[in-house]
Structure formats: structure tokens, C-alpha cells
Prior knowledge:
The complex is a heterodimer. By secondary structure, chain A is α+β, with helices and mostly antiparallel strands. In chain A, 29% of the residues lie in helices and 37% in strands.
Amino acid sequence: xxxxxxxxxxxxxxxxxxxxxxxxxxxxxxxxxxxxxxxxxxxxxxxxxxxxxxxxxxxxxxxxxxxxxxxxxxxxxxxxxxxxxxxxxxxxxxxxxxxxxxxxxxxxxxxxxxxxxxxxxxxxxxxxxxxxxxxxxxxxxxxxxxxxxxxxxxxxxxxxxxxx
Amino acid sequence: xxxxxxxxxxxxxxxxxxxxxxxxxxxxxxxxxxxxxxxxxxxxxxxxxxxxxxxxxxxxxxxxxxxxxxxxxxxxxxxxxxxxxxxxxxxxxxxxxxxxxxxxxxxxxxxxxxxxxxxxxxxxxxxxxxxxxxxxxxxxxxxxxxxxxxxxxxxxxxxxxxxxxxxxxxxxxxxxxxxxxxxxxxxxxxxxxxxxxxxxxxxxxxxxxxxxxxxxxxxxxxxxxxxxxxxxxxxxxxxxxxxxxxxxxxxxxxxxxxxxxxxxxxxxxxxxxxxxxxxxxxxxxxxxxxxxxxxxxxxxxxxxxxxxxxxxxxxxxxxxxxxxxxxx
Lengths: 164, 328
């Protein structure tokens, strides 16, 4: 979300405090002094994780502290991870493989790049998986590992995951 | 006072050790050597140049003297056991090591077989007899990982480790990514350059890396894990397309060995890894990252194989023992 606040000591802290009070998790705070619309105000962008129902509470708490919320953008699928699969991907029903992730509701395959060198040779695919939380990503990868086992596919996972 | 050693095995590592002892003034005297067919014993010290010369034309010594004779009869302080790894039962190296320990001799080895299978037993026997068993050369070639764990990081809790423990795989993956070679082409090239064995199964299937991971895990956590506990995936099914798909995202693929004792993870597998990660480097190097409670994260990188590089690890162990024995 993008906030506008008075450029005076303690303002930023008081704007951030409600986030932890409603159980939110601050991921990044981006301070952009030059973007302020008026000289005595300050523009701040905050990236945070919060359960959807608590958002209304948070907005009113921040407003009550005299901080103006300019914009709230939502991205439900905050976590992303790239995975590479090798094997007979088409013969083992690639769309079913993707569906097994998509049907969970908490994770989706949002991009797929496929390379098929020749008939009967194993093909390779790069999947971008996005999920609501880190735990959901772990569950999605677990599902993918199970599918890979039954379909005899090789899964190459990242050494460490990442945020969007 | 000089330290006296007996060397078992005159392959690439054994020859490297002898060459360096002959070349450098290390105060190490060789009183016995043996290869697979012959042996030599001289309590006053062998002429290393002559041993290496006769090895070049065949056996190193007399067929009447066996490796077992050298272990049981020669007059030495440290047995340097550098015969090829037998990952099945660790023999005959394991028996030679026990025999030397029973004689009250220290053991220095590059042999992964007995260390991955019987480390606890060897350490127990050595403790009873008041001698050292050191095996720096079993993991990461020239990288002083064991010295770092035992000395430099003493008192630290090691929370996790991950690393590139097989130079052959790293070389193959580097070439597949850089030149678009197929797995088979890159393997053929690695063989031509002597980076891969005639039978590369142990390397490319991830078994060699897994054995080293077992040695590290047992050394650090004393948890008695064995090879069958490691979840192993090799690099032999990787495609050039997979490397390219990773490169398009500023990543590459490396064979990573990892141990997270808290989560029960003991795994060797090809992984997507950012190109700017410390474990991404070209060629046949090895690297190990340790996560520790006090020192934070430490990564050691160096040559994972080679005659002189492995000799460096062996000689480091020999001199460690001789300085400690002298102190006491």
C-alpha cells in the first residue's frame, strides 16, 4: 500500500505499528521523499502480508493516526518459485500435472516454458509456481514431487525460494 | 624429530604424496611403501626417487612383501592409506587401518570407503590406543574442511551444510550450460581431460557426493548416518534444454549436497541456483558452505581432486599429527 504522512519524527513508526497489531507481516518499506505531493508530507510504500479480513481494520487504524492511504494493491499469490521438469511431459499429460497444482486453490502454475527436442526424447519445462504463503509453496512442491514420482519425471527444485 | 610414515597405494594420490615429500623439506621419512602387488620396507628411510622410478616401470618393490607385511612389520609412526575407495565394505583398507591402530600407529587416509562406513569404530579404536585417525583428503580434495571444522570453527554449532562435492559433475554442468553440449558430449569431454573415470557411475549418479556428505555429517554431528539414508538424484538425466531454461532466468543447475539435521534432510540433487550464488563456479572445483551459530555462514572453495592437491590434504594431516605428538 502507498501511504502519505506528515514529514515529522515518529510518523512512520506510528503508521507501521497497526500492522503488527492486526497480525500483519511487513516485507518491505520503501521511503520516497521526492514523491511527496506536498512539501510537509512524505510518501511511503509498504509491502506487507495480511489476512484479507483484517485489512479493513488495518485501514481504519492507520487512518485514525492521521495517515492518508493513497492506494492499496493486492497480490494474493505472494510467493513464487521456479521449478524445472524433465521427462516425457506430454505423454504423461502435462495439463494434468499443471492441474494438480492449480486445483489446490492456494498455488498456481503461472508460466510454463516447454522445450521438446525430438519425439521419444525427454522434454524439459520450466514452471513458475505462485502461492499464497511459504507453507502453501511447500505443499505445492510436495504435490509436484508425488506427481513426478508416479509419472517418472525428474524435478529440479531451486536451492532457495523467493518472494515475488 | 622426523615423522616416519608408511604409504599404502601408489596411484595418483600416493605418488603425489611421495613427490612432495621428496621435493619439500617437510621432515617426513618414508619407511615403507606398498602398491597392489609389491612392497618395500627400510627402517632408515627409503630413497623416494628410486621408489617412484621403479613404480614408473612396474611394481614399486618386492613381490615377496605385501601391503599387509608393510602395515604389520614396518617401523612407522603414521600409516598413510591412499588406496582406491571400495564403497562396498571398505576393504582391504579398513583391516589395514585397524591393524595399524592396534599397533599404536596413527592413520591418515584419503579412502572414502572405510571412513564413510566405519568412522565410529575407527575413532573408538583410535581413542583406546591414543592415536589419531585423520581423513582430510576424503572430502573436498585440497579444501581444509576437517581442519576448519575441528580447529577454526571449534565451539561453533554447525546448523547446516551444503556444497558442491563432486568436481566431475560440476565440470559437466558448466560445459552443458556454457557451450550447449549434451550430457553425453560433456561427459566424453570430461573423460578426455581426465576429470571423469572410465566408469563415471559413482560421480554422475551423485553417489560420490553422497558418500562425502555421509562423512561430513558423521564428523560434524556424530549421527551414525549411512549412505542408504541419503536421498540421491544424479545429473545423468539432465538435458541441455533444462540448463538453458535455467540460464534464461539468470540461474544455472548444480549438483548440491545438503544436510539439515533439524529437518532430517540429507540429500544430493541437481538444483536451480542463482548465478551469483557462492556455490556457482566453473570447472572441477569443490565448495562447502557451513551455517554456524557463532561464525555465521562460511564458504570454502578449492580444488576437489588432483594428485598434488590431494597430497596437500594428506601432508596437512601428517604434519598436524607430528606437531601434536611432539607437543605431548
